Hints:
- This is Ferrous-iron efflux pump FieF.
- This protein is of the alpha/beta class.
- The protein has eleven helices and six strands.
- Helix 11 links the parallel strand 5 (about 345-355) and strand 6 (about 385-390).
- The model has no long low-confidence stretch (mean pLDDT about 80).
Amino acid sequence: MKFIFDFLIKRFVKDYENVNSQNVRQSYGSLGGKVGIIINSSILILELVIGLFLNSIAITADAFHNLTDALSSLITIVSFKLSNRPADDKHPFGYGRIEYLTALLFAAAILVVGVEFIRSSVLRILHPVEVPFNLVSFICMACALPLQIFLNRFTNYIGNKINSSALKASALESFTDILVLSMVTLSLLITRFTSFPIDGYVGVIVSLFILHSGFELGKEMLNTIIGSAPEKEFVDALINSVVSYKPITGVHDLVIHNYGPGRYIASLHAEVPHDVPIMEIHDVIDKVEKEIGHKMNVYLSIHMDPVKVDSPEVIKLKKKVFEHISKIDGVLSMHDFRVVGDCEEKTLIFDVVLDKPYFSEDKEKEVKGKIESSIENLYPSYKSIINFDREFY
């Protein structure tokens, strides 16, 4: 199938390798939507005719499920087009989040359809109607299955290519369609061997799949709109890219905002040696912001944090302190370590990054007490000033 997928991409997506381009992303989304409309519309017509002919609530329910899938594909096309609109005065970061909003609205529509068909299916259980087996109808239903499998794999393929949460969610939904279509086809086959009114029961199961699909899609989009954590692969790639520039030695306080697929705004603190001329560091930071911003399609803002990296005393103290506090539950990392004062009157100042379960005032107070006790045992004459940071990814 990969050969067919690549052929479609090369045929209908101009500059298909430039997946960071918003125009290319729109072309991918449009292609996925059009293929979805064609396949789902074909299955819809096929199932609707068979469902009405056999008076099967299960087949008719799945037919209308495919109607929502076809509408989903149409929404995919529209949302990719709208989300690609350029930024303006009212929306300085563009319209990328429209993709999430339209998917959320579609999830609500799926839930409405699911509720309606579970009601119809329960009524069919209470008042059963005979569904006769028809060989031609069974063969037609079985032939629809490969189409659904093709759509699932194709949507997942292009969704991974452009890292689109909407297309990946659509692929997950189409996988549910494969399971549902298999169950409906199987129930039709079973009617040949039994008079048990299985149609209504399968209709309930199909409806539950519809409800589950709508709930999962809605939950995912709602979490994204509220502000979910960015993908770990993106965070790691961003950090590794920044520290690859010399003389940057480390990164912390990274915050990433999502303004739609492929649209990120990020800020971070970059640790640099204190004795490098400020104009030289400034030029490096400017270069990092521009080059990484263009490469990863992110608006990047970097704050410089000068640190003393060549002092044997500071290096030794930092290593010793972190060796002890890293054993304390909740401590992930330490940064901005510095020593203030002379002789015996010295103060250790540093920031500690806490794990997510410790994001509360009581937990911070508890961890701070343990850190202060640990440092007091190590260096009784030293004072300590501890600041807490959180990871937003």
